[in-house]
Amino acid sequence: MKSKYKFLVASALSASCLMYGVANAADKPEVIPGWQNAVPDGKDTPLHDPMILYSSGGVDGKMAIIGIPSFKTYRHLDCGVDTHEISFGGSNKGNKNGTPDGKYVYLNDKGANTICEFDIQTGYLARIIALPFPFGVHHIAMSTDGKNIFATGEYSGKMAKVDIKSGKTEVIDWGPSPSAPDYIDATRNGKYVFAGNYYHSTVGVFSTSPFKLIKEIPVGKNPHGTDINPESTMVVVSDKLSATMTVIDVDKLAVKKVIPTCAGPLHSVMDVYNKDGGSYRAGIDSPDGLTSKYVYESCFVADANVKVSYAKLEVVDEIPTHYRTGHISISPDNSYVMSLNKFSTGLFSPTGIIFPVNFEMWDAREKSPTYGKTLRIMPVDGEPHNAKGLMAYLVKDWTKGQAEKGGLIDKRVDLLDPPHRALSKRYFIPKETTPPGVKVVGGVKEIHMKAFSYGYIPRQVRVNKGDKVRLFATNIDKAAGITKNPDVTMGLTIYGPYGQRSNMDLPRGVTAVHEFTADIAGEYEIFCTHFCGPLHLEMRAAFFVDDPKKGPSNLAVGDYAEAQKMPGLLEEGQLTIAERAKGL
Amino acid sequence: MKNAKLKIGLIAISSLGMVWGSSSAFAAEKELRCKAGGVKVECPTISEADAKKAAANFLKEADDMGEGKGGSTYGIAPFDYLTGVGKRADSDTKTYKTSSGYALNEKQTHAANKTELWDRVKKPSSDGVSDKSVYDQWTNNWSPKFGETKVAGADPNHGKTYYYSYCIACHGWLMHGDGPNAAELNPRPRTLTRGEYMQKKTNLELFRVIKGGGEAVSLSSSMPNWGNVLQDQDIWDIVAFIRAMQDVPPPKSVEEYLNPKSTFKPIKGDVDAMTASKSKDFKEMNEEVESDMTGRSPGSELVGGGYVDGGNRKKPTEVAVKVK
Do B302 and A241 touch (CB under 8 A)? Predict the structure, then answer.
């Protein structure tokens, strides 16, 4: 603990130099705008990145580490099947980046129903927390004391509170069906958890202890992002189909204002300032008394980010993005907004049948001559969900022997590979025209599925435990429905024990085939892993594996204890089985 | 009118068949289209040619978009060859050496805070801009509005929003069964405006096919069950929208598009959103459809058929539009 403290002080000193540079850039007009990472002396000297972005790779199952502002990718770390939300260990105080303590970063895997824990200092995957089934984790949020992770169970209508240390998990139902809790955030005073539910079109308010639903607040149609400001006074909700931002008053637990923002709003991120009005530096500044001026909302259909003033509660600016922004992220120093775009139609060179999505960084510094302009745009791997940044001083340089002096590791550290590989055969065939449905061919259950904007045909598939399954999936879209992007790619993954076995991209013009044995009974949702359009989340189907001895599977009937263990895929002891607990 | 269109389509296709010398191909196709689960059903009115034409039109808009023509109004800003993104503004289109549109030009003392795409996301009529097409389309401001309902306790204005989100890809913008995916489906999606067919279908049957999918009524398995996605009240709202669009032809004017005239006459003894809770038939049907639906956990809070206040959803008794 003591050595950690020293490290922070030392890095605070060096960081303040860097921070001075960053702050300076904000005040003085930059001579060289744009694509070169240049210093004002004009020598084009490369800079160390003062900030680092941890990006959830989505369907590639990895986490990318990217420099800000260079926008250069440093490395990729494996997690699993379809990763979603980044959350730094430490505390959630501040904005969406929280207050990282520099030890761990958490990443939830929607495909495998797990949470990956990465050691920030070693840069390795350290632990996998396997959540109880049935659940279907969509998103996670760190608690204020850093001891718990709150999670939404999109594919079961459940909510969870995970004790990070032990992995013990409290799971509660959020009915009635259909119920799909998706985006979640926790207040910075440890009191409440807010989560959107796109089937209910509400935001649920949960007390953290005891963990239970207090009330549901009606919002616009099919809400998406649910984000809390650093002061914990307001929750902003992106009402996807209603094109509004609903602002919830945390004290009154009621709607404060509904602001028309843009077509297809999805997510929000806000800036954060310390008590003195400077940008908030985790580990240096006090995490108390933090404030925020603007919240930036991504607009999928309008191809834009809008800037909303917290003081006025109205749209004050709008920035075009390229194209179809999904998540949105902000650099820890509030200088840059990263628009995580889902389509790059026409922007890059093709490198395969799936066109890369992109990250676009625009200048959010109001005094900069390049304010509101795109500074960088980069193609990225996978289909990134969220990304969050921390100040680079939180990651120590261990590469030149510093680890010999101690402080890096003090116990055995397992080097994990993602546990859910193989046990299936996957391949592409030319686009088939077989009608949708299930038939038995040579003892194998052949399932022919069509994917369209936004759904699967058939919507429900039943097989028996032990069946050999050959699943044919075909994207029948000509272009994404509603938004008409011609380069639309779909995906198909059955979450949980079948995650990696079924994880397939569905580009136009081919049929993806998965072969595997349905050996674990239960109800597992099928979902789309490529953000194909505004109703991508609603694009779901269900895969039932019925055990004839137990009768038809549902959320109460299935081999759910088996599903959690992922048998044969991981050595004993490397997986934290998140045991179901009552009242943590 | 629809029949005339159908006839032309059929003649066109069958004459093509004769040219190819294999009219049996058409017969086989017709056979497929007019059967579901081996049972003969009413043939959808949309012809093969119509379905393909609709898909081609849709594709053209998408391709224009890919080339940056932006014909659909959805999205693509002119491409900047200098920076690789964004608008080109006043740069030299031959050399691309001048202002990229991001830097200052001579007249500006400060880079423009507002962009040319601003109008696309503003609240309609708040700033007098004329092109609000994306926002309007997304919020369905520019679409039929209904001051009355044909289904008591259900609001066609809300049903319309869900229709445009979930149903449009197959059933099409004007509900003529010619959505962009229609050409891929066999049998084709139903033409939902066609009175001589729809007038015979009860609300209960429509509710059942939306909630439980085509298989729940022994029709095409291509129609998914929406009970996993929509609450009962949402489904009633969609039923009300379908009823409000009966026999509405392709509009000849904006006026006609915004004010559709339905021919639907309520069917005697039928259930509606207001009477569903007391109807034995509805209860029986709903239980049957719900029995193997996803997301259910018997004996817990996760059971279906509930009502949650959200997304401007209203209880049947509180729905503002009434039957006239």
Answer: no
